[in-house]
């Protein structure tokens, strides 16, 4: 009888006699459930994560440009510089009419078509208006398409396609010669001389004896070709029209200030050309003309 009593007491005391700091293994039937994180919600509830199927969008960053035909057969150029594409925003700027318009917009990734779509505010290529207008922005690995959201006066929704291109400073870039080429000035059209096309202010210091026999408009052309080589976007319409001609395919209106990019030779020539331009304005028929 005593033995039976001792066995029953030891059985009853066993659970309460376990040390407090001893580690108990969990029951085999139980499992530790992971926290419901945002990633798990995406995978289990929404399916594959959106970012998993995106290409490397940084490859789409760069310069996109297009020529815009005008009624008088001259052309203008529209340019978009895509600087960063994050998971939420696309940033950069557009350049049209010599005016830089910031681009900072959220976008939607279309998995089916592999395209970025957004609605942005930028200058329209269909008018000479300087104000921004709403545009539909569609970007893929091949290029950029812009479409008007509001109908034009003709009742159409116009669109334009911009190709991806590259910009590189080329000190040998020059104007393409053409017959009877005139440059518009406030005093009327001025003939572009061979010297204005031939002389290169990026390669060597220009000779005073040559410059003193050139007209003011031709001096101005030689000087501004230096800025055009660095991608300067001209504010004056006469200069924009002259350089944005489809004959000057090397020219990209990309920057609103390139002074810091000029080489030492170019700085010397720019100062010299400005001095001769000033003399030309003060003494209309001087210097042997």
Plain-language structure description:
The chain has 289 residues and is α+β, with helices and mostly antiparallel strands. It folds into 2 domains: 57-165, Porin, CATH 2.40.160; 182-282, Methane Monooxygenase Hydroxylase, Chain G, domain 1, CATH 1.20.58. The protein has 7 helices and 11 strands. It has helices spanning 2-13, 38-44, 194-198, 208-211, 216-229, 237-243, 264-282, and strands spanning 62-69, 75-85, 89-96, 99-106, 108-110, 115-123, 132-139, 143-148, 159-165, 182-185, 188-191. It has a 9-stranded antiparallel β-sheet with strand order 4-3-2-1-9-8-7-6-5, with no helix packed on it. A hairpin with a 3-residue loop joins strand 2 and strand 3. Helix 5 packs antiparallel against helix 7 (264-282). The radius of gyration is 34 Å and the shape is elongated. Mean pLDDT is 82; it is low at 1-26 and 45-52.
Quick recap:
It contains seven helices and eleven strands.
Features:
24% helix; 9-stranded antiparallel β-sheet; 2 domains; alpha+beta; single chain; 289 residues; Methane Monooxygenase Hydroxylase, Chain G, domain 1; Porin; two-stranded antiparallel ribbon; disordered N terminus; elongated
Task: Chart the SSEs and their pairings.
Elements lengths: L1 H12 L24 H7 L17 E8 L5 E11 L3 E8 L2 E8 L1 E3 L4 E9 L8 E8 L3 E6 L10 E7 L16 E4 L2 E4 L2 H5 L9 H4 L4 H14 L7 H7 L20 H19 L7
Antiparallel strand pairs: 1-2, 1-9, 2-3, 3-4, 5-6, 6-7, 7-8, 8-9, 10-11
How can the largest sheet be summarized?
A: 9 strands, antiparallel
Count of individual helical segments = 7
What percent of residues are in strands? Answer: 25-35%
**What is the CA–CA distance across the termini?**
140 Å
Percent of residues in helices comes to: 10-25%
**Structural class category:** alpha+beta
Please tell me how large the radius of gyration is.
34 Å
- Helix and strand string, N-terminal first? HHEEEEEEEEEEEHHHHH
Mean of all residue-level pLDDT scores:
82
Can you tell me the number of structural domains? 2
Gross CATH architecture of the largest domain: Beta Barrel
Strand order of the main beta sheet, please? 4-3-2-1-9-8-7-6-5
